[in-house]
Specification:
This protein is α/β, with parallel strands linked by helices. Helix content is about 40%, strand content about 20%. The chain folds into two domains: about 190 residues, Isopropylmalate Dehydrogenase (3-Layer(aba) Sandwich); about 150 residues, Isopropylmalate Dehydrogenase (3-Layer(aba) Sandwich), CATH 3.40.718. The longest helix has 20 residues. The mean pLDDT is about 95. Belongs to the isocitrate and isopropylmalate dehydrogenases family. LeuB type 1 subfamily.
């Protein structure tokens, strides 16, 4: 009997609904022709617009839908002119990370041959690595609760054994799965600042312990400042990078820049039981309603969702469709015929999404 997977859908703010709609249509089309799985979507209201209307940014019912779902697809969230009383942004995605203990923030960085990139890249090179950002603690631990006086401000960096050991186990498992399908050499790099901070020496110690449990894989270390340099000079050398929350926040945007912008940057926040998939970019309210938003990062995030569901439930059809969807977007982008204006083209949201559908079902 074909299994049906429930997907909680957070439509988002600004351009969020505009890029969610065509993404869901692609997923529905893929599921409709598959004999290995079905998808059922449940809308979960949340975000800045919902807060402005109701006073709630993440209603209890939406959290319940998220907890009960097999996976969570979340679009761009937040609006610059809608904030909490303390001035901080509306960010249900961070609330979900903490509530569901989504400790592994997965940020793929992929540049195929022929794809435009700010780098002066050798013609025979491609970029294909994954940055894993711890997403529940680190320097974000006291978010909204930092101590501020007239003369001082303090935030607390927290690194725990419980979360770090889970994070490193995830990182080595990902490197192994990438190696098995020929996407990487099976190497994990711990990105830290262990030469300065005791907390990062602690972080590195736990990484080394996990490396010792995976002798079939390569493991090394890099300081975060050197990593930023090497991501520009030789990004094709990386496979899986794993790092603290703030470092990962910064480096993931650098990775998006290598690809040509946030419009091509998907992400996932993954825990032991739950996972959220969302584009890295914001809600872009300045272009909302104009039909010009880039849907590629949202579609790529959906591809990551299919792959994760396939791994979690040992479903080859889901994994295959996740790969097909990712490669369809990569083909459209590398060919350069249908690009949105942030990528130097003129295509609108619907045309860009249709190009992906055509790559899946027509080509």
């Amino acid at each position: 009997m074909t299994k049906t997977f429930d997907i909680a859908v957070f439509q988002g703010d600004g351009i969020g609904p505009e890029i969610t709609g065509p993404t869901l249509e692609i997923l529905k089309r893929m599921a409709s022709v598959s004999t290995g799985y079905n998808l059922r979507f449940r809308d979960a209201p949340a975000g800045a617009r919902h807060y402005a209307q109701t006073g709630e940014s993440l209603p209890a019912e939406s959290m319940k839908i998220a907890r009960e779902a097999d996976a969570i697809l979340l679009s761009a969230m937040g609006l610059p002119d809608v904030r909490y009383a303390d001035g901080t942004e509306i960010s249900p995605q961070i609330d979900l990370r903490k509530a569901l203990t989504l400790f592994a923030g997965v940020r793929p960085v992929t540049v195929k041959k022929g794809q435009n990139t700010p780098l002066n890249m050798p013609a025979d090179r491609e970029i294909d690595f994954v940055l894993i950002r711890e997403s529940t603690e680190g320097l974000f631990y006291t978010q909204g609760r930092g101590e501020v006086t007239k003369n001082e401000a303090r935030e607390t960096l927290l690194i725990t054994r419980d979360i770090s050991e889970k994070l490193f186990e995830f990182a080595f498992a990902l490197a192994r799965s990438r190696k098995e399908v020929g996407r990487g050499p099976g190497r994990v790099t711990c990105v830290d600042k262990a030469n300065v901070f005791r907390a990062f020496a602690f972080f590195r110690e736990m990484f080394d312990a996990e490396a010792a449990r995976n002798p079939d894989l390569q493991a090394d270390h890099a300081y975060v400042d050197a990593t930023a340099l090497w991501m520009v000079q030789k990004p094709w050398d990386f496979d899986v990078l794993v790092t603290e929350n703030m470092f990962g926040d910064i480096l993931s945007d650098l990775g998006a820049g290598l690809m040509g912008g946030l419009g091509l940057a998907p992400s996932a926040d993954i825990g032991l039981e739950h996972a959220v998939f969302q584009p890295c970019h914001g809600s872009a309210p300045d272009i909302a309603g104009k039909g010009v938003a880039n849907p590629f990062a949202m579609i790529l995030s959906a591809a990551m969702m299919l792959d994760w569901l396939g791994i979690k439930h040992d479903n080859a059809d889901l994994r295959q469709d996740g790969t097909r969807l990712r490669e369809a977007v990569e083909d459209v982008v590398s060919q350069g015929r249908v690009l949105t204006r942030d990528l130097g083209g003129s295509a609108g949201t619907d045309r860009a999404a249709q190009a992906v559908l055509d790559a899946l079902f027509v080509a």
